[in-house]
Specification:
4-stranded antiparallel beta sheet; 6-stranded antiparallel beta sheet; 13 strands; 35% helix; alpha+beta; globular; single chain
């Protein structure tokens, strides 16, 4: 499986994918089927303005769904159902209080939030309504955001919601990591010969860099220091700094995977030193 992943970037699609316009129309058709009472109209490329009766109207951005569809066109129906299901569930939860026992850490690149804000402003959002998510820097490239994990989606923790929880900010990371260990499915390590892939259900692979036991339980034998590529939130590839051939493979995965995958994260490699991952400059 790991070999197939490392060689997957050169494969061409089997058929011409839907255009952004056609994908948006199909999303609307699926949405109407799953929520017959809703109304929607186009609000721009890969944007829909959706109304749900008393819940008001919402602008829905389809960029991530479309990116995931382009990466896996054979899973089109599944992708649409998952994203629309997440939207409908999120609308139901807007008035629900955050459950502190389900707050988990989410690894993002440090420019992610600013990118979100710039995108929203470019699409006509009010500056006062921009999200103010709780976060802390992890290293020079990555930041830790915090979110409530639910069955279909995650809800990022805002400063206002955090204040209502009355949790000590200094203990938030420790609490979130403990929740992550409890909530993620079994963490699996696949591979051999000093190169491995770690899986944990598809949503929090990147966040596993925060769990010390993953890196200290002896399941992965690498040459040199532990080196990882995290091109997307659900892809974590591991090797060692003493393996030049593996380093080049990881660089390719990090660079090309970051450009191709939905929920992309970082095109650089990270090395674990003193219990923390930092940018690898070798």
């Amino acid at each position: 499986m790991l070999r197939r992943l490392l060689s997957a970037f050169s494969k061409a699609p089997d058929e011409t994918p839907l255009s952004a316009v056609d994908f948006s129309r199909l999303y609307g058709a699926y949405l109407k089927r799953m929520a017959p009472d809703c109304r929607f109209e186009s609000a721009g490329e890969l944007q829909l303005r959706v109304s749900f009766g008393e819940k008001g109207s919402h602008t829905v951005f389809l960029d991530n769904a479309y990116s995931q569809y382009l990466a896996h066109p054979e899973r089109r129906d599944e992708i649409l159902e998952v994203y629309i299901g997440s939207l409908l569930e999120a609308l139901q939860e807007e008035t629900h209080k955050i459950d502190a026992e389900r707050i988990v850490p989410v690894i993002k690149d440090r420019g992610w939030l600013e990118g979100v804000k710039e995108s929203l402003l470019a699409r006509g959002a009010d500056a006062e309504s921009l999200p103010d998510y709780v976060s802390e820097n992890y290293n020079s490239e990555l930041a830790i955001f915090f979110a409530e994990d639910n069955e279909r989606n995650i809800r990022y923790l805002t400063e206002d919601a955090f204040e209502e929880l009355q949790i000590d900010r200094e203990t938030l990371r420790e609490r979130a990591i403990a929740n992550l260990r409890r909530l993620v499915p079994q963490i699996e390590v696949m591979g051999e010969g000093g190169t491995y892939m770690i899986t944990a259900g598809g949503d929090y692979e990147a966040s596993l860099i925060l769990i010390d036991s993953v890196w200290e339980d002896g399941r992965m034998e690498v040459d040199g220091e532990i080196l990882v590529a995290i091109p997307a939130r659900d892809l974590l590839i591991v090797s060692g700094t003493g393996n030049p051939e593996a380093i080049e493979r990881l660089r390719q995965v990090a660079s090309e995977g970051n450009a191709q995958f939905a929920y992309n994260l970082s095109p650089v490699l990270f090395v674990r030193r003193n219990g923390v991952f930092e940018v690898f400059e070798g």
